[in-house]
Amino acid sequence: MKKRMVYGLFFGDSITYGEYDGVFGGWVDILKRFALQKYNEGSDELILFNLGIGGETSEGLVKRIQNEISARNAEDGNMIFIGYGANDLAIKNGTQMVNPEDFKTNILTAIQQTKVYSQDIYLVSILPFSKKVDGVVVASGKLRTNEDVLVYNQILKDTASENSLNYINFHSAFLEDKEILLSKDGVHPNEKGYGMMAEIAIPIIEKYL
Q1: CA–CA dist 116, 128 (Å, integer)
Q2: Which of 54, 139, 147, 185 could bond 14 through an S-S bridge, CB–CB 3.0 to 4.6 Å?
Q3: What are phi and psi of 192, to 5 degrees?
């Protein structure tokens, strides 16, 4: 019997990319290795593409998502992960990079473009920030607050619900132990945090193996 080959495309910022994880390479890379191991054991083939770009907002996503998916459109289907907001909500020079209304519009636009290629769309929550950077202007000149995280996550949650999509709530998983799951910069996960994200995501990708 011919094996299926499905593509998984992960769009996002530096947290999708796996920045600050010198051990595992981030949660998407952990999933890549898991899928390859399963394939070697006889499962269907699931090829994962890490399309995370550090510093990107939902505006960048809208500009590239259609080209990225059309270039990697698997015959047997695609699953798409969209993880944005940590840069959108950041305030730089007194202005929010992407305000909540525009953020929602961008995510909806990306969803509409994605639905041409896939119905398996996952919206990924924004992680909480460490208390040491909550409301603090950091070296990059950005100021972020956990209050805004709740606002933007609610947009993602509502958008997922209104469009019958899946919402991955990494935020809740991190909330209680965020100080030990985040790296020194207080924004990106450390190896332990990325490992936890992968653990939550593995049951999702297993459905395609």
Answers
A1: 32
A2: 54
A3: -65, -40
